[in-house]
Protein backbone atom coordinates (compact mmCIF):
# COMPACT_ATOMS: atom_id res chain seq x y z
CA UNK A 1 0.00 0.00 0.00
CA UNK A 2 1.44 3.39 -0.88
CA UNK A 3 1.86 6.38 1.39
CA UNK A 4 -1.04 8.27 -0.10
CA UNK A 5 -3.42 5.42 0.78
CA UNK A 6 -1.96 5.04 4.27
CA UNK A 7 -2.32 8.77 5.00
CA UNK A 8 -5.89 8.92 3.74
CA UNK A 9 -6.86 5.76 5.59
CA UNK A 10 -5.50 7.14 8.87
CA UNK A 11 -7.35 10.43 8.57
CA UNK A 12 -10.54 8.79 7.30
CA UNK A 13 -10.59 6.26 10.14
CA UNK A 14 -9.85 8.92 12.76
CA UNK A 15 -12.56 11.26 11.49
CA UNK A 16 -15.12 8.42 11.28
CA UNK A 17 -14.35 7.65 14.90
CA UNK A 18 -14.55 11.30 15.97
CA UNK A 19 -17.95 11.55 14.32
CA UNK A 20 -19.21 8.41 16.04
CA UNK A 21 -17.90 9.62 19.40
CA UNK A 22 -19.53 13.02 18.98
CA UNK A 23 -22.83 11.36 18.10
CA UNK A 24 -22.69 9.08 21.15
CA UNK A 25 -21.79 11.99 23.43
CA UNK A 26 -25.06 13.69 22.56
CA UNK A 27 -27.14 10.56 22.79
CA UNK A 28 -27.45 9.91 19.06
CA UNK A 29 -27.01 6.69 17.12
CA UNK A 30 -23.46 6.79 15.68
CA UNK A 31 -24.69 5.24 12.43
CA UNK A 32 -27.03 8.17 11.91
CA UNK A 33 -24.23 10.42 10.64
CA UNK A 34 -22.94 9.74 7.14
CA UNK A 35 -19.60 11.03 5.94
CA UNK A 36 -19.34 12.41 2.41
CA UNK A 37 -15.70 12.75 1.35
CA UNK A 38 -15.38 15.88 -0.77
CA UNK A 39 -13.13 15.21 -3.74
CA UNK A 40 -13.68 18.41 -5.73
CA UNK A 41 -10.50 19.61 -7.44
CA UNK A 42 -8.65 16.47 -6.33
CA UNK A 43 -6.83 14.50 -9.03
CA UNK A 44 -7.71 10.94 -9.96
CA UNK A 45 -4.83 9.35 -8.06
CA UNK A 46 -6.06 10.87 -4.81
CA UNK A 47 -9.61 9.62 -5.39
CA UNK A 48 -8.29 6.23 -6.39
CA UNK A 49 -6.25 6.13 -3.16
CA UNK A 50 -9.32 7.11 -1.16
CA UNK A 51 -11.24 4.19 -2.67
CA UNK A 52 -8.39 1.90 -1.68
CA UNK A 53 -8.55 3.40 1.81
CA UNK A 54 -12.22 2.42 2.07
CA UNK A 55 -14.08 5.58 1.00
CA UNK A 56 -17.29 4.86 -0.93
CA UNK A 57 -19.19 8.16 -0.85
CA UNK A 58 -17.76 11.17 -2.64
CA UNK A 59 -18.92 14.78 -2.91
CA UNK A 60 -18.25 16.92 -5.96
CA UNK A 61 -19.06 20.56 -6.78
CA UNK A 62 -18.77 20.82 -10.53
CA UNK A 63 -20.83 18.47 -12.68
CA UNK A 64 -18.51 18.39 -15.69
CA UNK A 65 -15.34 17.87 -13.67
CA UNK A 66 -17.02 15.11 -11.71
CA UNK A 67 -18.35 13.26 -14.75
CA UNK A 68 -14.89 13.40 -16.35
CA UNK A 69 -13.34 11.89 -13.22
CA UNK A 70 -16.02 9.21 -12.85
CA UNK A 71 -15.15 7.96 -16.34
CA UNK A 72 -11.49 7.54 -15.44
CA UNK A 73 -11.92 5.93 -12.04
CA UNK A 74 -11.50 2.22 -11.77
CA UNK A 75 -13.51 0.71 -8.99
CA UNK A 76 -15.00 -2.68 -8.46
CA UNK A 77 -16.88 -1.40 -5.43
CA UNK A 78 -20.12 0.51 -5.65
CA UNK A 79 -19.44 4.21 -5.24
CA UNK A 80 -21.97 6.85 -4.37
CA UNK A 81 -21.60 10.35 -5.85
CA UNK A 82 -23.16 13.33 -4.15
CA UNK A 83 -23.49 16.69 -5.89
CA UNK A 84 -22.87 19.35 -3.25
CA UNK A 85 -22.24 22.52 -5.30
CA UNK A 86 -24.52 24.96 -7.07
CA UNK A 87 -26.05 23.40 -10.19
CA UNK A 88 -26.88 25.57 -13.19
CA UNK A 89 -30.16 24.29 -14.56
CA UNK A 90 -28.63 23.59 -17.98
CA UNK A 91 -26.39 21.03 -16.23
CA UNK A 92 -29.44 19.11 -14.96
CA UNK A 93 -28.96 16.32 -17.48
CA UNK A 94 -25.39 15.69 -16.31
CA UNK A 95 -26.43 15.63 -12.69
CA UNK A 96 -29.42 13.38 -13.36
CA UNK A 97 -27.27 10.91 -15.23
CA UNK A 98 -24.22 10.72 -12.99
CA UNK A 99 -25.15 11.47 -9.39
CA UNK A 100 -26.98 9.60 -6.63
CA UNK A 101 -27.81 12.50 -4.33
CA UNK A 102 -28.14 16.27 -4.64
CA UNK A 103 -27.34 18.37 -1.55
CA UNK A 104 -27.79 21.74 -3.19
CA UNK A 105 -31.27 22.14 -4.64
CA UNK A 106 -31.68 25.91 -4.44
CA UNK A 107 -34.58 26.96 -6.70
CA UNK A 108 -37.89 25.78 -8.13
CA UNK A 109 -36.47 26.37 -11.58
CA UNK A 110 -33.66 23.89 -10.98
CA UNK A 111 -36.16 21.49 -9.42
CA UNK A 112 -38.29 21.60 -12.54
CA UNK A 113 -35.36 21.08 -14.93
CA UNK A 114 -33.80 18.33 -12.85
CA UNK A 115 -37.13 16.57 -12.50
CA UNK A 116 -37.49 16.58 -16.29
CA UNK A 117 -33.98 15.23 -16.77
CA UNK A 118 -34.57 12.49 -14.20
CA UNK A 119 -37.85 11.49 -15.80
CA UNK A 120 -36.05 11.15 -19.13
CA UNK A 121 -33.67 8.56 -17.65
CA UNK A 122 -36.39 6.98 -15.48
CA UNK A 123 -34.63 7.75 -12.27
CA UNK A 124 -35.56 9.45 -9.05
CA UNK A 125 -33.12 11.28 -6.82
CA UNK A 126 -33.07 12.20 -3.14
CA UNK A 127 -32.46 15.93 -2.76
CA UNK A 128 -31.66 18.31 0.07
CA UNK A 129 -32.87 21.90 -0.03
CA UNK A 130 -30.01 24.36 0.38
CA UNK A 131 -30.75 27.13 2.85
CA UNK A 132 -28.94 30.42 3.29
CA UNK A 133 -29.08 30.78 7.07
CA UNK A 134 -26.40 33.48 7.31
CA UNK A 135 -27.70 36.18 4.97
CA UNK A 136 -24.43 36.44 3.06
CA UNK A 137 -25.18 37.65 -0.46
CA UNK A 138 -22.58 35.38 -2.03
CA UNK A 139 -24.41 32.29 -0.80
CA UNK A 140 -26.83 30.17 -2.78
CA UNK A 141 -29.92 28.73 -1.17
CA UNK A 142 -33.37 29.83 -0.13
CA UNK A 143 -33.36 32.95 2.09
CA UNK A 144 -33.70 31.60 5.62
CA UNK A 145 -31.56 33.81 7.86
CA UNK A 146 -34.54 35.64 9.36
CA UNK A 147 -36.65 33.23 11.41
CA UNK A 148 -39.53 35.71 11.33
CA UNK A 149 -39.79 35.14 7.57
CA UNK A 150 -39.76 31.35 7.52
CA UNK A 151 -43.50 31.29 6.85
CA UNK A 152 -42.84 32.78 3.42
CA UNK A 153 -40.84 29.71 2.41
CA UNK A 154 -43.73 27.34 2.96
CA UNK A 155 -45.89 27.94 -0.16
CA UNK A 156 -42.82 27.91 -2.40
CA UNK A 157 -41.36 24.71 -0.97
CA UNK A 158 -44.80 23.12 -1.05
CA UNK A 159 -44.60 23.32 -4.85
CA UNK A 160 -41.79 20.77 -4.85
CA UNK A 161 -44.49 18.13 -4.43
CA UNK A 162 -45.31 18.31 -8.11
CA UNK A 163 -41.87 17.01 -9.11
CA UNK A 164 -42.38 13.32 -8.72
CA UNK A 165 -38.81 12.29 -9.59
CA UNK A 166 -37.35 14.36 -6.76
CA UNK A 167 -37.40 12.99 -3.23
CA UNK A 168 -36.80 15.82 -0.76
CA UNK A 169 -35.21 14.39 2.38
CA UNK A 170 -34.01 17.42 4.34
CA UNK A 171 -31.86 20.54 4.37
CA UNK A 172 -28.28 21.57 3.63
CA UNK A 173 -26.27 24.66 4.47
CA UNK A 174 -22.81 26.15 4.20
CA UNK A 175 -22.06 28.57 7.08
CA UNK A 176 -19.89 31.67 6.60
CA UNK A 177 -16.16 31.03 6.54
CA UNK A 178 -14.90 31.88 9.98
CA UNK A 179 -11.80 31.50 12.08
CA UNK A 180 -13.18 29.29 14.82
CA UNK A 181 -15.37 26.22 14.34
CA UNK A 182 -17.49 27.20 17.35
CA UNK A 183 -18.72 30.22 15.39
CA UNK A 184 -20.61 27.95 12.99
CA UNK A 185 -22.77 26.54 15.79
CA UNK A 186 -25.56 29.17 15.69
CA UNK A 187 -25.98 28.63 11.93
CA UNK A 188 -26.17 24.85 12.31
CA UNK A 189 -28.65 25.33 15.16
CA UNK A 190 -30.76 27.55 12.94
CA UNK A 191 -30.82 24.93 10.17
CA UNK A 192 -32.02 22.35 12.70
CA UNK A 193 -34.83 24.62 13.90
CA UNK A 194 -35.81 25.36 10.30
CA UNK A 195 -36.04 21.64 9.65
CA UNK A 196 -38.36 21.23 12.66
CA UNK A 197 -40.45 24.16 11.44
CA UNK A 198 -40.79 22.76 7.91
CA UNK A 199 -41.55 19.26 9.21
CA UNK A 200 -44.46 20.78 11.08
CA UNK A 201 -45.68 22.96 8.18
CA UNK A 202 -45.09 20.50 5.33
CA UNK A 203 -45.65 17.04 6.80
CA UNK A 204 -45.90 15.44 3.36
CA UNK A 205 -42.13 15.56 2.92
CA UNK A 206 -39.51 13.59 4.70
CA UNK A 207 -37.28 15.88 6.78
CA UNK A 208 -34.82 13.48 8.32
CA UNK A 209 -31.55 14.74 6.84
CA UNK A 210 -29.33 17.70 7.75
CA UNK A 211 -26.21 18.15 5.64
CA UNK A 212 -23.82 20.53 7.40
CA UNK A 213 -20.23 20.66 8.59
CA UNK A 214 -16.93 20.57 6.67
CA UNK A 215 -13.29 19.95 7.66
CA UNK A 216 -13.48 23.07 9.81
CA UNK A 217 -16.48 22.18 11.95
CA UNK A 218 -17.78 18.63 11.46
CA UNK A 219 -17.82 17.86 15.20
CA UNK A 220 -19.90 20.94 15.95
CA UNK A 221 -22.23 19.97 13.10
CA UNK A 222 -22.76 16.49 14.57
CA UNK A 223 -23.48 18.04 17.97
CA UNK A 224 -26.12 20.21 16.28
CA UNK A 225 -27.82 17.27 14.56
CA UNK A 226 -26.04 16.76 11.22
CA UNK A 227 -26.86 13.47 9.45
CA UNK A 228 -24.41 14.21 6.62
CA UNK A 229 -21.05 15.90 7.08
CA UNK A 230 -19.06 16.91 4.01
CA UNK A 231 -15.34 16.67 4.71
CA UNK A 232 -12.68 17.20 2.06
CA UNK A 233 -9.25 18.52 2.97
CA UNK A 234 -9.07 17.03 6.46
CA UNK A 235 -9.16 13.58 4.81
CA UNK A 236 -7.74 13.97 1.30
CA UNK A 237 -5.25 16.74 2.08
CA UNK A 238 -5.11 20.25 0.63
CA UNK A 239 -6.71 20.77 -2.76
CA UNK A 240 -4.23 21.53 -5.52
CA UNK A 241 -4.38 25.19 -6.56
CA UNK A 242 -5.66 25.56 -10.09
C1 LIG B 1 -15.54 22.18 -0.58
C2 LIG B 1 -16.81 21.93 0.13
C3 LIG B 1 -16.86 21.16 1.28
C4 LIG B 1 -15.62 20.54 1.94
O1 LIG B 1 -14.73 21.51 2.38
P1 LIG B 1 -13.36 21.02 3.09
O2 LIG B 1 -12.81 22.28 3.65
O3 LIG B 1 -12.51 20.44 2.03
O4 LIG B 1 -13.74 20.04 4.11
C5 LIG B 1 -18.10 20.92 1.86
N1 LIG B 1 -19.22 21.42 1.33
C6 LIG B 1 -19.22 22.18 0.23
C7 LIG B 1 -20.51 22.70 -0.31
C8 LIG B 1 -18.01 22.47 -0.41
O5 LIG B 1 -18.02 23.23 -1.50
Structure overview:
The protein is α/β, with parallel strands linked by helices. The protein has one domain (about 5-235): Alanine racemase (TIM Barrel, Alpha-Beta Barrel). Helices cover about 40% and strands about 15% of the residues. The protein contains nine helices and nine strands. The chain has helices spanning about 5-25, 45-50, 65-70, 90-100, 110-120, 155-160, 185-200, 220-225, 235, and strands at about 35-40, 55-60, 80-85, 100-105, 125-130, 140-145, 165-170, 210, 230. Strands 1, 2, 3, 4, 5, 6, 7, 8 and 9 form a nine-stranded parallel β-sheet that branches. Helix 7 links the parallel strand 7 (about 165-170) and strand 8 (about 210). Helix 4 crosses helix 5. The protein is globular.
Task: Name some characteristics of this structure.
9 strands; binds pyridoxal-5'-phosphate; TIM Barrel; globular; alpha/beta
Briefly, what is this?
39% of the residues lie in helices and 17% in strands. It is of the alpha/beta class.
Topology:
Blueprint: H1 3-25, E1 34-38, H2 44-52, E2 57-60, H3 63-72, E3 80-83, H4 92-98, E4 101-105, H5 108-120, E5 125-132, E6 142-143, H6 153-158, E7 166-172, H7 185-201, E8 209-211, H8 218-223, E9 228-231, H9 233-236
Parallel strand pairs: 1-2, 1-9, 2-3, 3-4, 4-5, 5-6, 5-7, 7-8
Helix pairs in contact: 1-2, 4-5
How many structural domains are formed by the residues?
A: 1
- Unreliable stretches (pLDDT < 50, length at least 5) are none
Sheet having the most strands: 9 strands, parallel
Number of helices: 9
Determine the N-to-C terminus distance. Answer: 28 Å
Report the count of strand segments.
9
Principal-axes shape call:
globular
